[in-house]
Specification:
Helices cover 32% and strands 18% of the residues. A seven-stranded mixed beta sheet has the order 3-2-1-4-5-7-6, with helices on one face. The chain has a single domain, classed as Rossmann fold (3-Layer(aba) Sandwich), CATH 3.40.50.150. It is of the alpha/beta class.
Length: 212
């Protein structure tokens, strides 16, 4: 928990309490439904919570904006971001129903009324959002196809509406079809060794892929 306060020092008492509850909540649920690698559970705050909040360092979310988290798994990056931005609406989806059961239970326990969780495939989502976030669920080529028609046209953030994608390693080949993509190194924001190769990729709505 201290590592969250290290980088996000202006949290309200309620937000601090919500973040502090995450470890025991995920330990309890992980014993029933495996949504986080068992070797990672003891490093939840660095490898999952702080990693998710890397998106907030790249682009803070405004009140009354809407965010879609595709392939949320156990609720990452959506749950930590929803704690950080209580006036922003988050829609967390996953194609695996038991994972959404965990997400809903965590959101309910924390009192996150800005979170909607649904067992649905990304392609079936009908609404439009300011940003679509995710954590390395697939290659960018495929992910972009899932997001078609789901991004609002009007911008109200510093970065243009589009995708904010948590990825790691060398992305040169993966992003070659997306010249409009910008990568942000998380090691510029967080000093922990885990973030040395971690990135946030921003792909604006009006990307021009080289393929059709």
């Amino acid at each position: 928990m201290d590592v969250i306060l290290k980088y996000f020092e202006n949290l309200s008492p309620n937000q601090q309490e919500q973040f502090s509850k995450l470890k025991n909540l995920y330990k309890e649920w992980n014993s029933k439904i495996n949504v986080i690698s068992r070797k990672d559970i003891d490093e939840l705050y660095i490898k999952h919570v702080l990693h998710a909040l890397g998106i907030a360092k790249v682009q803070p979310f405004n009140a009354n904006s809407s965010i879609l988290d595709i392939g949320t798994g156990g609720g990452f990056p959506g749950i930590p971001l929803a704690i950080l931005y209580p006036e922003t609406q988050f829609y967390l989806v996953d194609s695996i129903g038991k994972k959404i059961k965990v997400v809903q239970a965590v959101a309910d326990t924390l009192g996150l009324d800005n979170v909607t969780a649904e067992h649905i495939r990304a392609e079936k989502v009908k609404n439009e959002f300011d940003f679509i976030v995710s954590r390395a669920v697939t290659q960018m080529d495929d992910f972009v196809k899932w997001t078609k028609g789901k991004v609002k046209k009007s911008n109200k953030h510093e970065l243009k509406n589009g995708i904010l994608y948590l990825k790691g390693g060398d992305l040169t080949t993966e992003l070659k079809n997306f010249p409009k993509a910008t990568t942000f190194d998380l090691c510029d924001y967080f000093s922990e060794g885990f973030f040395e190769t971690k990135k946030v990729v921003h792909l604006p709505l009006k990307y021009k892929p080289k393929f059709k």
